[in-house]
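Cross-posted from the bioinformatics board.
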Amino acid sequence: MPLSQMECCKCRGKFPVRRQRGKLRKRDHIKTMWCPWCKSVTPHRERF
Ligand SMILES: [Zn+2]
């Protein structure tokens, strides 16, 4: 099952997410998305 781990660049919170739309390609890919800990949209690093 494709799981990806996102690390918030702001709070350093990590949480697993299901595969994003598109394909998992880059290991350290910055993605701007909602952080459940910050309760705001922050840049996240995508990791395996
Ligand atoms: Zn955060």
